[in-house]
Amino acid sequence: MTHYLDFEKPLAEIEGKAEELRNMARNNEEMHVGDEAAALDRKARDMLKDLYKKLTPWRKCQVARHPDRPHCKDYIEALFTEYTPLAGDRGFADDHAVMGGLARFNDRPVMVIGHEKGHDTQSRIERNFGMARPEGYRKAIRLMDMADRFGIPVITLVDTPGAYPGKGAEERGQSEAIARSTEKCLQIGVPLVSVIIGEGGSGGAVAFATANRLAMLEHSVYSVISPEGCASILWKDSDKMREAAEALRLTAQDLQKLGVCDRIIAEPLGGAHRDREATIASVGKMISAMLDEMGDMKPKALIKARRDKFLEMGDRGLAA
């Protein structure tokens, strides 16, 4: 069953009527409703184009959070071969919100790490809705260390509303773990590429996305805080999330102008969830292109380029 967002309700009505006509025709061979169904399909497609022609930042947030978007697990299964998951932080536990391990990408050994939100109620609870705890970030640090030791590229797939803010996570050093993971991103002497595939929330995303190259899917978002959280702080009213989304400059298009995002990956009409296979293939092509750009770079050059990139962001921001 297709999950429709609030602003897609008129579209749901038209597509529902077209499907209803087709079902009636299947149950009654004497009915000839093909032309009517095709006309409704054309109307739905035109409406879909209009809806997605110029999405507001808040609507992009809704699309980025769509439950049917491909998640980290889907990308790993489709794009990587010989994936060998590596678990645990060797200190406390294994965090199921973060998955990662050794794999081959285009027959090249890599380390892939990402946030996994889950696809149904049970898996979302198990994955803590993609909100990592300290042990998740410490697992990522361990895997990045291993990649650095063996000289293999690191690929990160970011999709999190933010790091988990629970009492236990804070007691175990959540902010320190995020800072250490961000620091490790800046230290490793291998290519590091990151893709925001849905939400890139706060330091929980930065800890994986401090990369040589950062790409974002067209309707993904990346911000220091969620629009709801920002609205609660600034206006004491979470219903002001639309205004907050505008102010945060969290879209891929805004972030490319600001120099935070290096590449934007086009999504199929209607968002990644309407053609998951095409979206995954586009992400694979972009990862391959970004890795190829750094093919001949030495470890010291990779580290310097990565550090310079983030230091220059502040200069650009002041100039703007």
Automatic annotation (TrEMBL):
GO CC annotations on file: acetyl-CoA carboxylase complex
- Pfam families for the chain: ACCA
EC number of the protein: 2.1.3.15
User: Which InterPro entries does the entry mention?
Assistant: Acetyl_CoA_COase_a_su, ClpP/crotonase-like_dom_sf, COA_CT_C
Q: Which Gene3D superfamilies does this entry report, sorted A to Z?
A: 2-enoyl-CoA Hydratase, Chain A, domain 1 (3.90.226.10)
Query: What compartments host this protein?
Result: Cytoplasm
BP GO annotations? fatty acid biosynthetic process; malonyl-CoA biosynthetic process
- Do you know which SUPFAM superfamilies this protein is assigned to? ClpP/crotonase
Gene Ontology MF terms: acetyl-CoA carboxylase activity; ATP binding; carboxyl- or carbamoyltransferase activity
Name this polypeptide is given: Acetyl-coenzyme A carboxylase carboxyl transferase subunit alpha
The organism of origin for this protein: Salipiger pallidus
Gene, per the UniProt record: accA
